[in-house]
Amino acid sequence: MPTDAATTTPRSETSGSQTLSRGLTALSLLADHGSQSIQSLADRLGVHRSVAYRLVRTLEEHRLVVRDAGGMLSLGPQLVVLARDVEHDLQSASLPHLQHLADELGMTAFLAVRDGDDAVTLVTAVPRGVNASVAQHPGHRHPIALGAPGIALQAMLDDPTWRALGHDGPMHPEVERVRSRGFAVSANEVIEGITSVGAPIRSRGTTDASVAVVTVGQPDTEALGAAVQRIARAIEADLR
What we know:
Blueprint: H1 11-33, H2 38-45, H3 49-61, E1 65-67, E2 73-75, H4 78-83, H5 88-105, E3 108-115, E4 118-125, E5 141-143, H6 148-154, H7 159-164, H8 174-181, E6 184-187, E7 194-201, E8 209-216, H9 221-239
Helix pairs in contact: 2-3, 5-9
Region (Disordered): 1-20
Protein name: Helix-turn-helix domain-containing protein
Organism: Agrococcus sediminis
């Protein structure tokens, strides 16, 4: 019996799609978990080490992944080239303000954008002259249901959009406080012992974004809230 070509996917195409999907997942895992071995990457991908090795070799050829002398994998420089035009205006407008905020507070400051149901770190500034600060790497993602930058992004959504993202329940309780006072506070939600404070950036024509700071302990969240709101307004002004 003849095969319906319109409903049959060639095996090579299916295999290629799976390989591409695994490669993209590998890049996301390196962004989320930082430097790691091939075996660790294979375990997270749920594949044999030999499969992960072939993926890594291909990603290395395109400079999307680099491997140090000890065999540890990290994201490669080509990703910077690919990403430099992504939300370029937003990155350019935010970086000097983020650096000022980081230096002023002695905390890591960053800008997150919404990617579907996730908050993705786009730009990060670490405080100068400080021995230690909480790391927040560009490319890191977590659900917008958690954390101050995610909650600030939630506050920019209407109910139909929230439901369209697959949520049956209400938004985070902190969302109403964001809408009334202008900033979100989150403690121990994304990482135990970490507090974040974030504010939405409202600018026509750009991706939904928020600015946030992250620190350990129990900081003065009112003071941090005022600071992140001030920086959010400054970024908005530069985007006009």
